[in-house]
Design goal:
The complex is a heterodimer of chains A (300) and B (254). Chain A is 76% helix and 3% strand. Chain A has 10 helices and 2 strands, in the order ααααββαααααα. Chain A has a two-stranded antiparallel ribbon with strand order 1-2. Chain A is globular. In chain B, β9 (220-225) and β10 (228-233) form a beta hairpin. The longest helix of chain B is centred in the C-terminal third of the chain and has 16 residues, at 184-199. Classes of the chains: A mainly alpha (300), B alpha/beta (254). The interface between A and B is medium-sized, with 17 and 34 residues.
């Protein structure tokens, strides 16, 4: 029963990881950009929500309605001012530029808000701890279920946009061949700005759930980025439903790790991530060979 | 007022749909186009020949806006389009195909063509779908609509390139060596498609090395060499022009 519970809670936690990984994966798959400022942008959105809820006493859900359009504009600005210019310098420059942006954002948040940890949990009444009983000794948090459902709806929505709408098709065409789209009347710059706006809206939603379910501080971006990365890589970078699977695998690995040892939460996740990475990079046979080599060496 | 008069004077005098004046292009120290004068009537079919490196592809690239000219101007449908970006020229009806077909390989053939109809053709919903189907039918691709573009062979890739261009609703279609690499039978099939497109009033500018294929469509021939137009006129006359013979055979033949 304990294990079943851990798997269930891990799966729900995976929904959050899928949320945070969604924008990273989307940006990588359609814009070929690895955005190292991803986590910091989510935390910045969380702070914006916190200010609206705390200072202006808005319901966090109302605050979200205000913050998401702002995040879309942030996406357009990010694309026009940073990513578009950085991409002209090759594949490495966007990575460095977004790394720099993460440092600037983290420290700007520290300057503005200090080192205190914050959370939106106090502003949503009993939703932060309410739960449903679904069996003998099995409880699921209402917020956790809501997070998971949001992840499914968001990933499904993105999938629909990409496969069923003209904008989505233009985004896919632009991601495949940015030089050719001009020939069929697509303005690649405009399409990339729209894609960045969509990615930042998902980042805003991820920041919202980060703030609801946990505490955050100005330097919380880096760990969020790592979780997003791990979920995206486990699920196969660039695949949207894969991201959900990756998030669940990561969440379950962490929960089971935590059950095995009190230090096991992060280690469980990292171990699965490294194992998946090893298999992906060298294939199952290559991995076996590598393991055999390690054992042979250790025997000598 | 003066502007309007000039505007009126420039258009009907030539009756040109597309007009290039004093077009030059330099890449660093390399002069690829020098002082090209060109005009195209609505519905006209012009072939462009010339040795490799003559500037033919660059000429097309400058016309559609993939490269900005170093000097000179381009007018299309009575307006100066020299400063317009490539997607906007495409939406106005100046559409080009690539020498090496570049389909969006992760998308189906229908999606490839639909995207062209929606963006280049400015159509929505059902209208875009109908235009895409018409373009697929015109280029003989209808039965392959649901296949992924990455599975296509060379002829079908070229047909898709053509279908995608047609879906944008061009008034001038610029073809860059679309017959290259095809067998004679395949080339004939392509020629039949292009003739049908032409019969609907679409003007065509076609670069091709295989002259006998080109002449099945082109009523006027241009020969380029060293970034200049060295001959322009009826195909037989151009092929017999001393400068053309010299460009192809070199200067040493007496």
């Amino acid at each position: 029963m304990i294990w079943l519970n851990q798997i269930l809670q891990g799966t729900l936690l995976g929904g959050y990881y899928a949320l945070i990984a969604c924008g990273l994966s989307f940006m990588y798959s359609v814009m070929r950009i690895i955005n190292l400022a991803h986590g910091s942008l989510a935390v910045a959105a969380a702070y914006a929500l916190f200010v609206l809820s705390d200072t202006y006493e808005l319901n966090p859900f109302v605050a979200l309605v205000i913050v998401l359009p702002v995040m879309a504009l942030v996406g357009v600005a990010l694309q026009r001012l940073v990513l578009e210019r950085a991409k002209r310098g090759g594949t490495l420059v966007p990575v460095l530029a977004t790394f720099g942006l993460a440092i600037v954002l983290d420290n700007a948040l520290f300057q503005l808000f200090g080192a205190d940890t914050r959370s939106l949990a106090p502003y949503i009444d009993e939703l932060s701890y309410a739960s449903w009983q679904i069996g003998d000794g099995l409880f699921v948090g209402e917020l956790a279920v809501m997070t998971f459902a949001t992840a499914v709806v968001m990933l499904g929505g993105l999938q629909l946009i990409l496969s069923r709408t003209q904008v989505g098709r233009a985004i896919r065409a632009t991601s495949e061949d940015p030089d050719t789209v001009g020939l069929i009347g697509i303005d690649g710059r405009r399409i990339n700005a729209i894609a960045a706006a969509i990615a930042m809206v998902t980042v805003g939603i991820a920041g919202f759930f980060l703030a609801l379910r946990a505490t955050f501080d100005p330097y919380a971006g880096a760990p969020q980025l790592i979780f997003a990365f791990e979920a995206a890589v486990i699920g196969g970078a660039g695949s949207l439903w894969g991201t959900l699977v990756g998030g669940i695998v990561l969440g379950v690995a962490q929960s089971i790790g935590a059950q095995i040892s009190s230090q096991g939460f992060l280690i469980g996740g990292h171990a699965v991530f490294l194992a998946v990475l090893l298999v992906r990079l060298s294939g199952p046979l290559g991995t076996l060979t590598a393991i055999r080599l390690v054992f042979r060496r250790s025997r000598k | 007022m003066a502007d309007t008069l000039m505007e009126l004077g420039a258009r009907p005098a030539t009756g040109a749909l597309l007009q290039a004046a004093g077009l030059s292009k330099r890449f660093g120290g390399l002069q690829v186009l020098s002082d090209v004068e060109f005009s195209l009537r609505p519905g006209e079919a012009v072939g462009i020949v010339g040795p490799n490196g003559a500037g033919k592809t660059t000429f097309l690239s400058v016309l559609v806006g993939a490269h900005a000219p170093s000097t000179g101007s381009i007018r299309f449908a009575g307006e100066d389009i020299t400063a317009l970006p490539a997607p906007e020229r495409c939406r106005r009806g100046l559409v080009r195909t690539h020498q090496i077909p570049r389909p969006f390989s992760g998308m189906t053939i229908f999606e490839n063509v639909l995207t062209a109809a929606a963006n280049g053709g400015g159509l929505n919903g059902a209208a875009a779908g109908e235009r895409a189907l018409a373009a697929l039918e015109a280029s003989g691709m209808l039965s392959l609509s649901n296949r992924k573009a990455e599975t296509l062979g060379l002829l079908d890739r070229k047909r898709l390139e053509l279908a995608r261009a047609l879906a944008t609703g061009p008034s001038v279609l610029l073809l860059d060596e679309i017959g290259g690499g095809l067998t004679d039978a395949e080339a004939d099939e392509l020629v039949a498609i292009i003739r049908r497109v032409r019969s609907r009033g679409v003007a065509i500018i076609w670069i091709e090395h295989i002259v006998h294929v080109l002449l099945q469509v082109a009523e006027r021939l241009i020969c380029m060499d060293g970034g200049r137009i060295i001959a322009d006129g009826a195909p037989e006359a151009v092929m017999r022009h001393p400068a053309v013979i010299k460009a192809y055979l070199g200067g040493g033949v007496q």
